[in-house]
C-alpha cells in the first residue's frame, strides 16, 4: 500500500471512518522509528503504545493492539467509525487507524503531561495539590459520563484507571485507551465479554461473570477517586494482610467519614490538610457510592459529575449526540442525599437503569465456590470491618512507580485467599488479568 500526504500527517487509501486518516502499517512504522524501544510510551495486556510525529510535526500516540484478538476487519472498521464520532474535551481524540493483515493499530492525539498515575504515585514527582486533584476528578468524570450517556451506541470503557487518565499542560484530564471499549445498545442491560482490565479496578460482578455494564466502569472510577483521596495504589502488596486492596482498606473509613465528618484517616497525608473540606466530603461520598458491591446500587456517571461539581459547568460538554440534561445542577442536593443513602445501603438505583438485577441473584454463570458462599448483609460487613480497622491510621509511603504508561501482565484463575495473596506478592499493583473466579475471600 502506498501512502500519500494529505492534510495533516500521512494518509493512504479510502476514508470510511468519519474523516479520520487511514494509515498504512509502513507509515506508522516510519513515524515510530520502527516501533522502537526509544519511542515506547508503555505496554500492557492489550498492546503497546508508541510516540510518533506526523509530517506537520504533530505528536501522536500509536497503539499497536495485540495480534489474536479475533476481531475481523469489518468489525474493527465499524468500531473505529463509532469511536471517531466521539468528541469531548475530556476524551483523547482518535486521529486515525491502520489495518494490515492481522495488525490493528489506533492513532491518538498525544497528551503531553503524563498520567494521573504518574502524578499520584510517580517516584520523585511533586505532590499533586488538592485543586488539581479535584479538577482532574471532575474532568475525567465528565468524559466517562459522556461515553455512557451521550454516545449512541453507548460506550463502556472497561479499563478505567489512573494510568488511562492523561493530563494536559493545563491540568485538564483526558480519558484515554478506547482500544478496549465495548459498545452497548440501549436495549441491552449488559454486554457479555471476556474479562479484561486491570486488577484492583475490576468490578466484582464483571470479574466473576464477564457481564459488563456501565456500572462496571463506575466501580473502577470509584477506585480512581479513592486513589485521589488517599494517595494509595489500588493494590499494595507491602500492606498488612487484609489491607492490600485499597477498596477493602477504605470501606470502614468511608463509613466513618460519612457518619462523623472526620476524614483524617482517609486523606493523603502528603496534602498536609491543605484541601477544601466540602469538596473532600463530596468526593468521599461519590467514591463510597461508586464502589458499592451491588452494581445496581451504584450511581450513574452523570450523578457522580453532579456530586463532584455542584456548579454543573455546561460549557465543556459536547451535545453532538443529543441535548443531554444529565448535568442539571439543580439535581445536586438531591443527588448528595441519595449518595449518602447509597453509601449506607438503603437505596437501590435499579429504576434509573434498565437493569435485569442479575447481580443481586446467585447467577448460574458464577463459579460454584462463589454461588455457595454465605453472604452477610453488606452493611453488616462494613460495620464489622470498621470495628476491626477503627484504630488503624496507617497510610503507606509511596513505592517507586514504574514508567507511567507501563503495566505488568498476568492472567489466570484465583481460587482462594492464599493464592490471591500470592498474586499480590507476584504482581504488586499493576496486573492486567484475564478471567478468574472468586475464592474464599472474593473482592469488595
Distance between the termini: 50 Å
Q: Output the strand order for the largest sheet.
A: 3-7-8-6-5-4
Q: Give the tally of structural domains.
A: 2
Helix content estimate: 25-40%
Looking at the overall shape, the CATH architecture of the largest domain is: Orthogonal Bundle
Q: Assign the CATH superfamily of the largest domain.
A: Transferase(Phosphotransferase) domain 1
Query: What percent of residues are in strands?
Result: 5-15%
User: Helical region count?
Assistant: 13
Average pLDDT: 71
The chain-level structural class is alpha+beta
- The first-level CATH class of the largest domain is given as Mainly Alpha
Q: What fold name stands as the CATH topology of the largest domain?
A: Transferase(Phosphotransferase), domain 1
Contiguous runs where pLDDT drops below 50 for at least 5 residues: 1-17, 185-193, 312-333, 347-444
Largest sheet: 6 strands, mixed
| Element order: H for helix, E for strand | EEEHEEEHEEHHEEEEEEHEHHHHHHHEHE
The global form is globular
How would you sum up this structure, described in words?
This protein has 444 residues and is an alpha+beta fold. It has 2 domains: 100 residues, 2-Layer Sandwich (Phosphorylase Kinase, domain 1); 318 residues, Transferase(Phosphotransferase), domain 1. It is 32% helix and 14% strand. It has a 6-stranded mixed β-sheet with strand order 3-7-8-6-5-4, sandwiched between helices. Strands 14-17-16 form a 3-stranded mixed β-sheet, with no helix packed on it. β16, α13 and β17 form a beta-alpha-beta unit. α4 packs antiparallel against α6, α7 packs across α8 and α8 crosses α10. The chain is globular and about 60 Å long. The N and C termini lie far apart (50 Å). This is non-specific serine/threonine protein kinase. Pfam families: PK_Tyr_Ser-Thr.
Amino acid at each position: 500500500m502506498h501512502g500519500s500526504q494529505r492534510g495533516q500527517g500521512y494518509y493512504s487509501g479510502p476514508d470510511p471512518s468519519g474523516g479520520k486518516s487511514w494509515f498504512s502499517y509502513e507509515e506508522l512504522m516510519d513515524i515510530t522509528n520502527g516501533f522502537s524501544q526509544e519511542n515506547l510510551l508503555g505496554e500492557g495486556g492489550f498492546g503497546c503504545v508508541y510516540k510518533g510525529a506526523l509530517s506537520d510535526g504533530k505528536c501522536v500516540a500509536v497503539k499497536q493492539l495485540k495480534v489474536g484478538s479475533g476481531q475481523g476487519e469489518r468489525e474493527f472498521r465499524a468500531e473505529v467509525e463509532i469511536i471517531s464520532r466521539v468528541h469531548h474535551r475530556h476524551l483523547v481524540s482518535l486521529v486515525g487507524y491502520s489495518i494490515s493483515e492481522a495488525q490493528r493499530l489506533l492513532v491518538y492525539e498525544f497528551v503531553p503531561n503524563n498520567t494521573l498515575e504518574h502524578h499520584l504515585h510517580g517516584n520523585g514527582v511533586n505532590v499533586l495539590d488538592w485543586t488539581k486533584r479535584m479538577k482532574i476528578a471532575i474532568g475525567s468524570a465528565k468524559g466517562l459520563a459522556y461515553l455512557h450517556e451521550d454516545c449512541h451506541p453507548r460506550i463502556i470503557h472497561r479499563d478505567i484507571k489512573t494510568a488511562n487518565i492523561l493530563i494536559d499542560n493545563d491540568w485538564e484530564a483526558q480519558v484515554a485507551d478506547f482500544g478496549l471499549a465495548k459498545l452497548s445498545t440501549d436495549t441491552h442491560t449488559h454486554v457479555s465479554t471476556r474479562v479484561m482490565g486491570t486488577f484492583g479496578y475490576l468490578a466484582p460482578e464483571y470479574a466473576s461473570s464477564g457481564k459488563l455494564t456501565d456500572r462496571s466502569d463506575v466501580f473502577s472510577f470509584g477506585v480512581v477517586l479513592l486513589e485521589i483521596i488517599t494517595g494509595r495504589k489500588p493494590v499494595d502488596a507491602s500492606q498488612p494482610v487484609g489491607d492490600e486492596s485499597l477498596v477493602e482498606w477504605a470501606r470502614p473509613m468511608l463509613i466513618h467519614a460519612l457518619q462523623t465528618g472526620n476524614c483524617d484517616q482517609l486523606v493523603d497525608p502528603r496534602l498536609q490538610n491543605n484541601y477544601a473540606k466540602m469538596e473532600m466530603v463530596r468526593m468521599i461520598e461519590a467514591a463510597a457510592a461508586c464502589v458499592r458491591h451491588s452494581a445496581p446500587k451504584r450511581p450513574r456517571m452523570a450523578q457522580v459529575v453532579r456530586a463532584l461539581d455542584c456548579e454543573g459547568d455546561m460549557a465543556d460538554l459536547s451535545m453532538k449526540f443529543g441535548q443531554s440534561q444529565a448535568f442539571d445542577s439543580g439535581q445536586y442536593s438531591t443527588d448528595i442525599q441519595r449518595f449518602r443513602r447509597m453509601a449506607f445501603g438503603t437505596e437501590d438505583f435499579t429504576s434509573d437503569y434498565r437493569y435485569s438485577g442479575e447481580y443481586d441473584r446467585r447467577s448460574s454463570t458464577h463459579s460454584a465456590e462463589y454461588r455457595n458462599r454465605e453472604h452477610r448483609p453488606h452493611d453488616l460487613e462494613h460495620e464489622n470491618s470498621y470495628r476491626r480497622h477503627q484504630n488503624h491510621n496507617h497510610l503507606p509511603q509511596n513505592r517507586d512507580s514504574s514508567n507511567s504508561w507501563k503495566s505488568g501482565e498476568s492472567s489466570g484463575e484465583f481460587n482462594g485467599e492464599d493464592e490471591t495473596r500470592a498474586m499480590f506478592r507476584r504482581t504488586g499493583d499493576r496486573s492486567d488479568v484475564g478471567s478468574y473466579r472468586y475464592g474464599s475471600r472474593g473482592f469488595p
